[in-house]
Amino acid sequence: MKNKGILTFLIVLTFVIMGVVILDYLSERPDRQQANPYALSLDTLTAVDPSMILYKEVRNLKLEMEMPSGLSILEEKLLVVGDKKLIICNLSGELIKEIPLQTEPLCVKATADRCYIGSAKQVTVLDPGGKLISNWDAFYENSVLTSIDVYDKKVFIADAGKRVVYRFSDSGEKELEFEGKVGEGDKHGFIIPSPNFDLAIDLSGDFWVANPGKHALENYTFDGNLRGWWDAMTCDIKGFSGCCNPANFTFLPDGNFITSEKGIVRIKEYKPSGEFVGVVAAPSKFEGEQHAPDVVADNLGRIYALDKERKMIRVFEKK
């Protein structure tokens, strides 16, 4: 009788264990699991109070390109590079000219008498008619040229691969390169975790460089000396989130910044002091995680954003 009782106990125990295993298995099915209270939700990062959105999208300019990469504006013309070509169109998107290129372009800057096009390790200089003036090759094996601006016959180039900024003469002579360090003892200068490294000079000649790994915009002299900076390292809409933002920026005619972010894509306006002004385009304007749009502004304050995924230029005006 004693052995029979032990056997009965073991049989019951076996069924209990099997029941626990089956219930545990069923509870682990995706459609049966309870919500994870610690799961990361992006809703709070992508939601924007409508009162903060100061601009409206007024039109889209479709591009005949598979991989548009850079945007510039000159008076009544937009210049776009990508697919080994430069296209020039008016502000309504009507094609004016298309110019083939020998290298895959990454960035472009147009002036009254030159067009500077940056690729990984070369700058191509064209005249206003698209004729080749020169190629500049004074770069490095791991160079990735991501931004160009020009002021008073000085050409400034951002190299995301080397994490440096160059100053060239307009004849193509390299005059300076600097790493963004404040002093000899500093352990870091420009922190560039991804190939997003922008620079720009405002109408008054103030020279700014994005330091995306520090979520900062830094003001330099033309000799590469740091004068000041502002940063905004926060996931809040008023700051910059992710590994490396702002990815791109430009200036409005009044001197305010327009910034563009990658990852959670959003375009915003800031005062020169770094004070948040408002939102140009909320994340809901973009589908999922995308490249940061290249941004430029015209003399009326309209903002042109190069949407690389949709292969178009999107135009925003103040409400």
Describe this structure in words.
This protein has 319 residues and is mainly β. The protein has one domain (64-318): TolB, C-terminal domain (Neuraminidase, 6 Propeller). The protein is built from 2 helices and 24 strands. The chain has a 4-stranded antiparallel sheet, with no helix packed on it. A hairpin with a 4-residue loop joins strand 15 and strand 16 (216-220). The longest helix has 26 residues, at 2-27. It is globular and about 50 Å long. The N and C termini lie far apart (90 Å).
Q: What portion of residues belong to β-strands?
A: 35-45%
Task: Indicate the multimeric state.
Answer: single chain
Overall spatial form: globular
Distance between the termini: 90 Å
What is the CATH top level name? Mainly Beta
What is the topology, as strand order, of the major beta sheet? 1-24-23-22
Element-by-element helix/strand order: HHEEEEEEEEEEEEEEEEEEEEEEEE
Give me the CATH superfamily: TolB, C-terminal domain
Number of domains: 1
CATH topology, by name, is Neuraminidase
The assigned CATH architecture is 6 Propeller
Estimated radius of gyration? 26 Å
Sheet bearing the most strands, described? 4 strands, antiparallel
The number of helices is 2
Point out poorly predicted stretches. 20-33, 35-41
DSSP helix fraction: under 10%
Helix/strand-derived category reads mainly beta
Count of individual beta strands: 24
Report mean pLDDT, rounded to a whole number.
88
